[in-house]
UniProtKB/TrEMBL annotation:
Keywords: Cytoplasm, Repeat, WD repeat. WD repeats lie at residues 73-115, 116-157, 211-238, 242-283, 340-378. This is Angio-associated migratory cell protein. Residues 24-70 are annotated as: Disordered. Gene3D superfamilies: YVTN repeat-like/Quinoprotein amine dehydrogenase. It is found in: Cytoplasm. It comes from Oryzias latipes. InterPro entries: Quinoprotein_ADH-like_sf (IPR011047), WD40/YVTN_repeat-like_dom_sf (IPR015943), WD40_repeat_CS (IPR019775), WD40_rpt (IPR001680), WD_repeat_multifunction (IPR051179). SMART domains: WD40 (SM00320). GO terms for cellular component: cytoplasm. Pfam families: WD40 (PF00400). The gene is AAMP.
Length: 417
């Protein structure tokens, strides 16, 4: 709630706001009595007081029904957990949901081009290959399927342990996955050639193939970060101990050339790691350290999302308490704290600007100017939390996935565009 709203809210403490006490007689008042009472009321003053801090029922309904989206995709019959755009044209989206399905659909009109069925559990991972020709969908049970978009046929499938994440190679039809038992898998698709990376028996919570296509960074439940050589299958670097994270990894990002990694953890910190040396070169956190509404007093303010700005030396770190922190990458100084009303789920920097977008548990998508720390715009329309979102290359639209069983397309309009 902003400062103006707080100033306008009427609070009643004891008898302080009571203007007049009227004794009620046992008999019903006559119309003439009511008229006499009304003569003593200053209507102009009463209307002014009523308008301050109060919304009419119609206004409240209008706010609840606010929908800034251009299109709503409503084929899913359960929560929508993930969404991504095809990298070549940005015209197709794939969403995965609690209904054990993924859909490939056209962003312009919502038409379904492919229904990815046959899953045995909630589809929590869904994404296109680098050339947009293939789409992979993975469910919580570990069943992964790959579909050819043009022919709408399933071309490959594989079953692993409980799935945590999927990632496509940036330049080849190679798919990587991490599982709950710590296994990291890599396949050539659709040939099926397989390679596994020997990991400790703890959950591989997040990971991605680096831009050079030769290495992958993987974060684990014990706080360890490993940089893997994809060709030889060995860990080049293992980041752990006092300099590393002291809790499970939640998120991982890399800069444009893959020279730097940014990791987030339930320990309430983000770590900047050199992928070439494996050294931790920076640690980022914010004051507070407790998650808002946390039942466990010892629960830290978990980092939920991280990312690098492409055009300025800035990074963004999003926390469970609703704080988006913008840090200067060269000095490690905190530049701005952008506060949300609820925990942040995901963030994404625009490709060619200093604007970072966030989605949160209050169901809103927000755009922030990282230079000033100011809120540029806010988009609403979901009836539940936003669980994932993605922004296209031109930063002209965003596609969101929500717990209200819907995905939405928002047109991102700003005065400077």
């Amino acid at each position: 709630m902003d400062d103006h709203a707080e100033e306008n809210t009427v609070e009643i403490h004891g008898d302080e706001e009571i203007i007049e006490v009227i004794d009620l007689n046992d008999t019903e008042p006559e119309p003439e009595d009511l008229a006499d009472d009304l003569d003593n009321v200053d209507f102009e003053e009463a209307e002014l007081e009523d308008d301050e801090g109060w919304e009419t029922e119609d206004e409240m309904e209008a706010e609840a029904e606010q929908d800034d989206s251009e299109l709503t995709f409503s084929k899913h019959t359960g929560s929508v957990f993930c969404v991504s755009l095809d990298p070549v044209t940005n015209s197709l989206a794939v969403t995965g949901g609690e209904d054990d399905k993924a859909y490939v659909w056209r962003v312009s009109d919502g038409e379904v081009l492919l229904e990815c069925s046959g899953h045995k559990d909630s589809v929590t991972c869904a994404m296109f290959s680098h050339d947009s020709s293939l789409v992979a969908s993975g469910d919580m049970s570990g069943l992964i399927k790959v579909w050819r978009v043009e022919t709408k046929e399933e071309v490959w499938s594989f079953e692993v342990g409980d799935l945590e994440w999927l990632d496509w190679h940036p330049a080849a039809p190679v798919l990587m996955a991490g599982t709950n038992d710590g296994s990291v898998w890599m396949w050539k698709v659709p040939a099926g050639d397989c390679k596994t990376f020997q990991s400790p028996a703890c959950q591989a919570t997040c990971g991605r193939i680096l831009p050079d296509g030769k290495r992958a960074a993987v974060g684990y439940e014990d706080g360890t970060v490993r940089v893997w050589d994809l060709k030889h299958g060995n860990a080049i670097h293992v980041v752990k101990g006092q300099d590393g994270h002291q809790g499970a990894l939640t998120c991982l990002a890399c800069n444009k050339d893959g020279s730097l990694l940014l990791t987030g953890s339930v320990d309430g910190s983000a770590k900047l790691i050199s992928s070439s040396t494996g050294k931790v070169v920076g640690t980022f956190s914010v004051e507070g350290g407790k998650a808002t509404g946390s039942r466990d007093e010892e629960e830290s303010n978990s980092v939920e999302a991280v990312g690098f700005c492409s055009i300025l030396p800035l990074i963004a770190v999003a926390f469970l308490d609703g704080t988006l922190a913008i840090f200067d990458l060269s000095t490690h100084v905190l530049r701005h704290k952008c506060l949300h009303q609820a925990g942040i789920v995901h963030l994404q920097w625009e490709e060619s600007s200093s604007v970072v977008s966030t989605c949160s548990l209050d169901g809103a998508l927000r755009l922030w100017d990282a230079r000033s720390g100011g809120l540029l715009s806010e988009y609403r329309g979901h009836g539940a939390e936003i669980l994932d979102f993605t922004v296209n290359r031109e930063a002209s639209l965003a596609v969101t996935a929500s717990g209200d069983n819907r995905a939405k397309v928002f047109c991102l309009q700003r005065p400077d565009r």
